[in-house]
Amino acid sequence: MSTNQPLNPETPQIPPVCYPNPVYTMSWLGLRTMFILGVSLALALITNAIDGFASDRVEAGLLQGGRYDLLSHSLTYCFCVMAITLMTIVIAEVGFRKIVNLLQYALTGMALALFYLILLALSEKLPFAASYIIVSAMTIGLIALYIKGITGIRKAVVLITAILVAEYALMFVLIKLGSMALLVGSLSLFAILAVAMYFTLKLKMKNGELTLEK
Question: Among 81, 100, 183, 189, which one is least packed by beta carbons within 10 Å?
Answer without folding.
Answer: 183
